[in-house]
Amino acid sequence: MAKNSVIVESPAKAKNLVIVESPAKARTMSKYLGSNYSVKASMGHVRDLPAGKLGVEVEDNFDPHYVIMADKKKIVKELKEASKNATAVYLATDSDREGEAISWHLVNAANLKDQQIHRVTFHEITKEAIQDAFNNPRDIDIKMVNAQQARRILDRLVGYRLSPLLWKKVRPNLSAGRVQSVALRIIIDRETEIQKFVTNEYWTISVNLLKDTETVDSGTPFKATLNSIKGQKETLKINNEQEANLIKTDLTEATYQVVKIVTKESHNKPAPPFITSTLQQDASRKLRFSSRRTMQIAQQLYEGLSVGTEGEVGLITYMRTDSTNMASSALKEAKSYIISEFGKQYAPTLPRVYAKKVKGAQEAHEAIRPTSIKKDPDSIRSYLTSDQYRLYQLIWKRTLASQMTDAISDVTTIEIEASHNNSKNRYIFSTKGTVLKFPGFRILYIEGKDDSQQSDNESPKLPPLVKEANLTCLKLVADQRFTQPPNRYTEAGLIKILEEQGIGRPSTYAPIISTIQDRNYVEKTKGHFTPTKLGTIVCNLLTTHFPEVMSIDFTAGMEKDLDRIAQGEEEWVPMLRKFYEPFDKAVEKAIEEAERIPRSTFDEETDEICDKCESKMVIKTGRFGKFLACSAFPECRNAKPIKTGVECPECKGDLVERRQKGKRGKIFYGCSNYPSCNFALNQKPLTTPCPDCGGLLSAYSSGQAKCTKCEFKGRLPEPETLEVAV
Asked: Are 282 and 381 contained in the same domain?
């Protein structure tokens, strides 16, 4: 066997060959299959369209010219040799469209057509699931393959036609993608909405109250907010300070009395088990994981990890899915665990069944869940990395909570009337209190919220009140407020809108978000996406000349077309032709009519002066990220890295922002005196010194800092804005 072979074998003299995508998956499956099987890894796709040319014969029914990828030729050769002596070949790649396409490509790349080929699929890597899959093999589903081919060819056609246009009209080395460009538009549309938002002033009036029979020291003060004036149908609006002061004057020496009390029992149902999009959203909100990081860790949990004496074990079901279904065996196991650990009152009589979240979904057929609820996170913690443990714990808790009883609360709404003899107005204040009667699923798990959906779990404590009870005013407050624009998208919020609009599918959310960041079309600041000047220019150009390609509805419609192809309801070649013919004409028209964008348009101005010609320096973006350059270019070619304003702790030079080489090179911070000084760090350096030792602090997560010299880690006493480099 070659030194760098990725083959994982069961004992020698195997009669059957099994091909999977990764060595980790191969190791886990080898444990279950026995000596009659040899399990080998293809390391993902082995064939693709060629790099450097279109690779699609548009005039010949979009015939694709696939080639074996350069770094996979050795692997394909090994697989081809291994198949010669095999009685049968089992293709055990993932159960979605991409996995189906990988199996199809393997057959063609390794010339397996004459072999006895079996396709096996499963949604969890457990002994029972593997045995069931191998007892029920099937043929490759060519409909799923065609849907994946159509997606790949669509993306190649769009990329190969639009990217040269961007090179000619904007700048070299840019690229455009079919789905990524629409995601960029969603972010830019939100930014436009924010910029156009007109802030309006308004005022609120609230009062702190106490029962007449209580004192401040021993009673329960509570707050109520002015809602309306008795007898007026329209909603009360207080537009300015003058109007607020008039009401405050009217309320001077007013008496307050309870006029209405309504208590209702509220049932709060648990969230469904995770699908791909909701896993990425909750991991973003709760763990601060990017979608890419979430999927990488989920892949590890799915393919199998070494867990003590058990060896390699698949810990979760397949992580690319849009189904909320759970297997009956998993439902029974969850109910048994809930009764055992929490009590019968926490387990509903019948299993919870959730409606399918995505209409027409054709991916895997189960939600993301642990392969065994009995493997609670703490029992296997010592075998997992910190990130693996945190994500597994999130999945485990969400799965178990989804099969628990409702949380039950009493929600009490109280109306209070304020008036006094010298005023004809009767002012109605209201307050609401929630008392949790039974925690149900909330004993284990509470779903995260977006910025625009802040949790209302925290509710003020109200004293026991009765109708006509008299209240004492402790304080009357008028607050000036302003209407706020919508929030910029977080990663969780963007995934949510992509799913709601039907843009992309479970396997594409993470690549979409990674791509628009890698291309420097958007930046993540304080966890929110902001379009760059370059991204805005590219989006505007594409939207002007390719309104259909950049249309949310059109892109969502194409996803439905791909679904229909996967179901055998539509042919893939006519679908491509219907798209390409008008698209090709639009490209030719744009080449002739679109104006070239001056490069200075997307330069960012600074106050720094060029030390060679005294012109202003501007921030430009190159292949390796942002840098400072002279605005007098090309007459002056002065350029340098961007300073952070922080001294190098080793040589007192400037720490500057740099980017690793490569398409997806990460930002890091190094000394400007390199190579004589090699100091560097991955987290953004902060100007505030360490409160314990005075050393250099860096931002390592939202609002958190750690010292590079001592063990300090946490929030700063007077925190500066902490932004983690993307």
From this structure: yes
